């Protein structure tokens, strides 16, 4: 099993970072604008990605496994690209040195495929978007996200 | 053993990306301005990092294991933080869809420590700097790099 892990510090209270990770409105502000569903344990959140013309180019359905206020959010991927199904994504928060540290993990990849390298880079770009949203009030969610390669 | 892997596309020929990865001047343009040594197989390159006041805050010595023009660069870490010693770093290039894809890997981490998550995020930021250098002529090497958390 392989994992993607990232660490980023946000100059804001953990409660602000948690809101961006645990509400539909928050998630739509940094990952993809087309975020729907219910952000509660046992429920599912749907993330869809569209090209500039509005055509759907991909998406994920996540089951919320854990939402601990100001502390942790954890999802399991229910549908999406084959490589993602069954993988788990988590965000752990800790206030330190005047910032909130976000420890991100996307675990249980069956193989370290090239698509995983793409996703690792893309997650980094979206975590910068999360930081911009929480610190400045505006992120760069899809479809206005930073493109990184020929896969988007 | 754990790995960091990233994938980024650069709108430029592989030869331009290779130059930024295989020469002291190129490396100083996107990773750290304080890059010295000899970028040849069997030789070592020294990367030092300084704070804005010029004080050294860290560094790495890499032995060059491989330099295949327009194709691959591979290093082994000889000195630096304990977690990095003995790890290997590689950049594999491939032209595709009008861009050069860089497949980055930092392998042989003994444990998936929190510092690895920091380094994964930091490598992503430096790969964006590499892209800026190759595409636009200017990257954001240390000490002018994008800071990501309380560890820099």
CATH superfamily of chain A: START domain
Structural class given helices, strands, pairing of chain A? alpha+beta
Mean pLDDT of chain A: 97
Largest interface in this structure: A-B, 31 and 31 residues
| Poorly predicted parts of chain A | none
Cα-based radius of gyration of chain A, to the nearest Å: 14 Å
Helix share, percent of chain A: 10-25%
CATH domain class of chain A: Alpha Beta
Would you count the extended β strands of chain A for me? 7
CATH architecture designation of chain A = 2-Layer Sandwich
CATH T-level topology of chain A: Alpha-D-Glucose-1,6-Bisphosphate, Chain A, domain 4
| Quaternary organization | homodimer
What is the domain tally of chain A? 1
Strand order of the largest sheet of chain A: 1-7-6-5-4-3-2
Strand content of chain A: 35-45%
Count of discrete alpha- or pi-helical segments spanning 4 or more residues of chain A: 3
- Please outline the major beta sheet of chain A: 7 strands, antiparallel
Morphology call of chain A? globular
Secondary-structure element pattern of chain A, one letter each: EHHEEEEEEH
Q: Alpha-carbon distance between the termini of chain A?
A: 25 Å
Domain Activator of Hsp90 ATPase homologue 1/2-like C-terminal (chains A, B): 12-135
Pfam family, one (chains A, B): AHSA1
Protein name (chains A, B): SRPBCC domain-containing protein
Organism (chains A, B): Ramlibacter terrae
């Amino acid at each position: 099993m392989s994992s993607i892990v990232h660490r980023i510090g946000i100059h804001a209270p953990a409660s602000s970072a948690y809101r961006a990770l645990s509400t539909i409105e928050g998630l739509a502000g940094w990952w993809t604008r087309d975020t729907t569903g219910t952000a509660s344990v046992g429920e599912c959140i749907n993330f869809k990605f569209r090209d500039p013309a509005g055509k759907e180019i991909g998406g994920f359905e996540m089951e919320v496994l854990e939402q601990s206020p100001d502390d942790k959010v954890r999802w399991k991927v229910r549908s999406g690209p084959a490589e993602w199904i069954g993988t788990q994504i988590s965000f752990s928060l800790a206030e330190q040195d005047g910032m909130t540290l976000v420890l991100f993990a996307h675990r249980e990849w069956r193989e370290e495929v090239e698509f995983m390298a793409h996703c690792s880079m893309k997650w980094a770009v979206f975590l910068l978007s999360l930081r911009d949203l929480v610190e400045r009030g505006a992120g760069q969610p899809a479809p206005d996200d930073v493109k990184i390669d020929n896969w988007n």
